[in-house]
């Protein structure tokens, strides 16, 4: 399977290259990058997820559940989904659904940086400036993760491999219901196209694990080009992709 960074895969689990995905709510990771997360896990990477909130203020799928019951359900679904994807560690920050922009930025960056230093990722994936949907939590997390990554990249790395930062960008494979917010900041162009055929069945199982959020899956299934797409698109933010013609100019 195609990997974001070519890296020699060793036999020992402890030597596996690490990919850390940083997202805001349960299901963000699956619907925006689930194929790539699963594909890397299948290829022998250690894939870890930072989920900044429990998604406890989602309006859909709440039914008659109390706040506490709904939060428990969201976390149960997240656990099932990451198991399907092959994610081997979850860092649940529980910053409060909807509260990320109001938090102290320095404290948030410090928490993310601590995880990066602890897990030593070769690849970090998060939202781009548009946050896919313009959700304020997504947009804030883009900013915070980028700053934490900038500090992490300046520190020492295992084997002197420079870490790389990728942003998810809108693609056919991302459900239409995630793209309809007004005043969404401009998105960056995709510079990396990832074939997700290898991880597709795992991504599908993860999407189905979000029983309370089936409207998202239905939105994708109702859009044949999206449902049939086996591609997730990314913008490599660091190191920046230099176009061939610019390189040769
Ligand atoms: Zn979200």
UniProtKB/TrEMBL annotation:
- In Swiss-Prot or TrEMBL terms, this protein is called LmbE family protein
What are the recorded GO MF terms, alphabetically?
hydrolase activity, acting on carbon-nitrogen (but not peptide) bonds, in linear amides
Provide the species name: Vecturithrix granuli
Q: Which Pfam families match?
A: PIG-L
Question: Which SUPFAM superfamilies does the UniProt entry name for this protein?
Answer: LmbE-like (SSF102588)
């Amino acid at each position: 399977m195609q990997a974001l960074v070519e890296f020699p895969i060793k036999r020992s689990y402890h030597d596996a290259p690490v990919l850390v995905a940083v997202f805001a709510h349960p299901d963000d990771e699956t619907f925006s990058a689930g194929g790539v997360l699963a594909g890397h896990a299948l290829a022998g990477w250690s894939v870890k997820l930072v989920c900044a909130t429990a998604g406890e203020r989602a309006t859909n799928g709440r039914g008659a559940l109390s706040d506490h019951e709904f939060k428990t359900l969201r976390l149960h679904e997240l656990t099932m989904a990451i198991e399907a994807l092959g994610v081997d560690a979850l860092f649940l920050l529980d910053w409060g659904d909807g509260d990320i922009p109001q938090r102290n930025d320095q404290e948030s960056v410090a928490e993310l940086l601590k995880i990066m230093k602890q897990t030593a990722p070769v690849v970090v994936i998060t939202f781009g400036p548009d946050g896919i949907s313009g959700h304020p939590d997504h947009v804030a997390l883009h900013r915070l993760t980028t700053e934490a990554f900038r500090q992490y990249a300046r520190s020492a790395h295992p084997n002197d491999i420079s870490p790389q930062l990728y942003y998810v960008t809108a693609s056919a494979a991302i459900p239409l219901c995630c793209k309809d917010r007004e005043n969404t900041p401009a998105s960056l162009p995709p510079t990396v196209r990832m074939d997700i055929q290898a991880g597709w069945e795992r991504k599908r199982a993860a999407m189905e694990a979000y029983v309370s959020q089936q409207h998202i899956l239905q939105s994708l299934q109702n859009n044949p080009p999206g449902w049939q797409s086996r591609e997730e698109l990314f913008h490599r933010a660091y190191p920046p992709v230099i176009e061939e013609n610019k390189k040769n100019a």
